[in-house]
Amino acid sequence: METWTEPAREVPVAGRPDVLVVGAGAAGVAAAVAAGRHGCETWLIERSSAIGGLATAGLINLLLTLDDGAGNQVVAGLCQEFVDRLAALGRARFPPREQWNREDPDLVAHWRRFGLVWGAPESVRYSVAFDPEAFVDVAIDALRGARVRLRMHCWFAGVALADGVVRAVFVESKRGREAILPGVVVDASGDGDVFVAAGARFEHVTIPPHLWFRVGGVTDGPRGAGFDTLDRGRVLVPWGPHPDRVDACDPDDMTRAELACRVAAREELDRLRRAEEAFAGAWLDDYARMLGITESRRLVGDHVLAKEDAGVRFPDTIARTGHWTRRDVVFEIPYRCLTTPAAANLLVAGRCISTTRYVHQATKEIPAAMATGEAAGTAAAIAAAAGAAVREVDVAGLRRTLRAAGADVGG
Ligand SMILES: Cc1cc2nc3c(=O)[nH]c(=O)nc-3n(C[C@H](O)[C@H](O)[C@H](O)COP(=O)(O)OP(=O)(O)OC[C@H]3O[C@@H](n4cnc5c(N)ncnc54)[C@H](O)[C@@H]3O)c2cc1C
Asked: For a tag site, which of 84, 252, 310, 351 has the least CB within 10 Å?
């Protein structure tokens, strides 16, 4: 490949936050709120103007799941707080506790219409349908309350590493290139941009993309497609997958996928209008602004959580998650899934933590992403305050702190 040598240059230093979180998806928001609440100066940078990532801009408006498939809650903490705040705004719908784990066909059918029931045998799960704009509002309030400095329109672009420590994070914006000198960095970019730049080991896969969209003007009655939303007549269509796999880290591939998915989703709406009476007068509300790609790069960290780890209790568990299609499995997520030998002040959260592809199906879900974000933000705050390496954080103390904040870290 032809190359060009870029000249070295001095760049302005934008600031020296204790904790810098990269990516304002569900995981990054949780990480920043958790770090900010511990009193350290926390910055959150986001390449777009969207807060919530796939959970909002991707129109993935379903929290699957907060339970273990047997009627017990296993994700709490900030995720539960968001559900409470959404519910207080009247912008979340979920089965009450007494319905969890019931197999009553009418109840199951009711919640299936919202996209909250998956797998077999079917049962009512503690999963939540929510309004994406309300999720953004709740996130903004939480970030403000935690005194997080949010900077949108700001791309993570690289790191300067010295002696195994990320000394500088380079960002690009309309203002040009700048350096941020953080105490601890949390990579919540979904694609692992920071850990790749830091030289960590990782896996990289391609995946068939989705493009979810919402339509209004859908009439009541039988319907073969789409999930009910909180608004009458508005349906969420989980369109996809497109058969051509996409590499989320290749802009040309992404452009091809964006265009192909858009054409195919439009054709699907036309088809629904023709084929189903309920959709006959429906209109397009919006396509997801973020292509539905759940998997690209995954950290290969200090522990790779694997299928065999189902049900295993780890001494350093910082979060737990059930499985959205299975009722017989709980994964404890050890702190070591967020850490890497590559950099002493780097933590990873959300869908790109260190797991196998199989376990990723559980840990990538929004509740689990928020739980690992909360853990990473809390650990980052502890490490930054102590001036310690993230792998040296006292995990028993971290677990106590998380539990005191309402998180579920197992027994
Ligand atoms: C089709 C599909 C269906 C799904 N269904 C469900 C479901 O029903 N329920 C469920 O709970 N989960 C579901 N998921 C999974 C879930 O939506 C995601 O895994 C989860 O939202 C990931 O959150 P995250 O914060 O880790 O990553 P993301 O949401 O990807 O957030 C990453 C953020 O980082 C930003 N970013 C990236 N690179 C940079 C950079 N270089 N500089 C600055 N910012 C950057 C992005 O703009 C984004 O805001 C689904 C996913 C897909 C794709």
From this structure: 252
